[in-house]
Design a protein that fits this description.
The protein is 27% helix and 23% strand. The protein is of the alpha/beta class.
Length: 387
């Protein structure tokens, strides 16, 4: 695999705060430490979390200015002699294709030690693309850049995952969102006799990138009838049907919750769906999705990653329907590796160019990517340096 010769400067995009325009900066090419690396970024998605952060929805302090972007895939450009393997122990060399998740558990806190299946709730996580400010040298801490910097002595929780050589950068940039969906289905399959199983019906609320990834995962795990609720018809709902949804319900056509619940139940049949997943980011999705379930069904809330507000609801409905409500937030390190394997196994089954729209790494390109994603003019906006 060819490795592009490093230049003396590296381009990186930053934001000064919510609502700010992207700023393109140039920083010196940093020295690579003993247990470190520089990863040349080939593709990095625009996540709904990025959009919420830019709207001021992140529930806590952030180190503005900083570089957004965490759905990154790239190639090891330079590697230190002390960094010889990825997180899973696979040999790691210059030229290898890799991905790096944003949320990296420390491995030492209460949750990591006592509840490894809850390592996503790590008390001291390392975050790229969110929690390290641009002012911190060498300034390459996010995916909307030409390179990202790795130093395991400085940030020992950092985790790099090697991906197969024939997994394209574009598909590789989908590993992070697929990891979130992987955890959501793992949660739904953790309930013993009440677990999701092959043949069960599924409702997916939201037809954006996470909804599409949930559709792929539902099919991969042998779901029965699958209904996607969302909008707009083009490009999103039409694409969901192309990718295997048995039906879609448009929130533009069915404008009230009652209409949408009836439409879903007509497609699913029987008493309602076995499983529903909120992938929408809308607080209103929860009470509506519960009514799309059969009594005793399972609801997985994975769409409220940031705080977009609250909504009135009746807990009586949760009680009388005996639904199982599961939160699913991000993923554990092992679920990232599971997502790589699962996504790789279906990478040739779909036309991913229908999912991803590309934008260059520039002030205009990043602004256009954010605008297109926010307006739902595409399914997944992806920033490609060098485009």
């Amino acid at each position: 695999m060819s490795v592009r010769k490093p230049t003396s400067d590296v381009g990186v995009v930053t934001f000064d705060g919510p609502g700010a325009r992207p700023t393109m900066r140039s920083v010196p090419l940093p020295h690579v430490p003993e247990r470190g690396a520089l990863i040349r970024i080939d593709a990095c998605g625009v996540c709904g979390t990025d959009l919420h952060i830019l709207k001021g929805h992140w529930p806590g302090e952030l180190p503005w200015p900083f570089t957004l972007g965490h759905e990154l895939a790239g190639v090891v450009e330079t590697i230190g002699p002390g960094l010889t393997s990825d997180y899973m122990g696979r040999p790691l060399r210059q030229g290898d294709r890799v991905i790096m998740p944003p949320l990296m558990a420390c491995g030492e806190c209460y949750y990591c030690v006592h509840y490894p299946s809850r390592a996503n709730r790590c008390l001291r996580p390392t975050y790229y693309g969110r929690k390290i400010g641009f002012d911190e040298p060498p300034h390459l801490w996010g995916g909307w850049a030409e390179m990202v910097y790795i130093d395991l002595e400085r940030l020992p929780a950092t985790k790099i995952f090697r991906v197969p050589d024939d997994m394209s950068a574009m598909v590789g940039s989908l590993v992070e969102p697929y990891s979130s969906v992987t955890r959501a289905f793992n949660r739904a399959m953790s309930l013993g006799n009440e677990s999701f199983k092959a043949g069960d019906s599924v409702v997916i609320q939201g037809s954006g990138p996470i909804g599409v990834m949930a559709l792929v995962a539902a099919r991969q795990r042998g779901a029965g009838r699958i209904v996607v609720v969302g909008a707009p018809e083009n490009p999103r709902l039409a694409l969901c049907r192309e990718m295997g949804a048995d039906a879609t319900v448009s929130i533009d056509q069915f404008s009230t919750p009652d209409e949408r619940v009836r439409a879903v139940r007509e497609v699913i049949g029987g008493f309602g769906a076995d499983l529903a997943l909120d992938c929408s980011g809308s607080p209103a999705a929860g009470p509506e999705g519960v009514e799309m379930l059969r009594d005793g069904g399972t609801y997985v809330e994975m769409g409220q990653f940031t705080d977009a507000g609250s909504i009135d609801t009746s807990w009586h409905r949760m009680c009388v329907k005996e639904v199982q409500i599961l939160g699913s937030w991000a993923f554990t390190p092992d679920e990232v590796d599971q997502a790589i394997t699962n996504l790789y196994s279906v990478q040739n089954d779909y036309d991913w160019t229908r999912v991803q729209s590309t934008f260059p790494l520039s002030e205009r390109g990043v602004a256009d990517a954010i605008a297109a994603a926010s307006a739902m003019e595409c399914v997944k906006a992806t920033i490609v340096p060098g485009l």
